[in-house]
Amino acid sequence: MNVKKLSNIKNYFELIEHDFKVLDLLTEEYPPNLKNEDFSDWIITLLYYISCIYIKAYFQSIGVNIQNHQALKEGISRSSKLYFIFIPYRKLEEASRDARYVLFIRLSQHPLLHISCLFI
Predict the structure, then answer these.
(1) Phi/psi at 66 (nearest 5 deg)?
(2) Residues whose CB falls within 8 Å of the CB of residue 23, separated by 6 or more in sequence, listed in order
(3) Cα dist from 106 to 3, 70, 95, whole Å
(4) Multiple choice CATH, 3-118, 1.10.8, 1.20.120, 1.10.287, 1.20.1510
């Protein structure tokens, strides 16, 4: 594996580590002024992006540079090693999109929460 590829993979894992720290902030007990706030939309979105970064790191490790979400979906669907996560990945992608653009999804009410565990 060449140095550039290792550097890119290292960058992906640094980003994942950062995103998990943000996720920790959003899932810990909130300060009094935020007790009634619900950040489920950001939690679902972070879980989706963490899964994307993990998968991009995998592709980078095998010499495939993924540039966008469409290429990521195509890569998963065509990979014999990743095809089994395609449907859960798409459901998490849809939940993330819904949380960001369509409606506010409360985590406690969302049936797809367990799907994110497949990627973490």
Answers:
(1) -90, 125
(2) 43, 46, 47, 50
(3) 42, 27, 11
(4) 1.20.120
Describe the crossing of helices 40-61 and 69-78 by its angle, rounded to 10 degrees.
Answer: 60
pLDDT in tens, 69-104: 999 999 999 999 999 999 999 999 998 988 877 655
Q: What is the pTM of this model?
A: 0.78
Are 84 and 46 in contact by the 8 Å Cβ rule? The answer is no
Q: What is the chain's percent helix, strand, coil content, to nearest 5?
A: 75, 0, 25
Tokens of 49: 């992006």
- Quote the crossing angle between the two packed helices 69-78 and 86-97, to the nearest 10°: 160
Domain ranges of the chain: 3-118
- The predicted-structure confidence for 20-53, as pLDDT tens digits, reads as follows 999 999 988 888 998 888 888 889 999 999 999 9
Looking from the CA of 17 toward its CB, the CA atoms found within 13 Å total 6
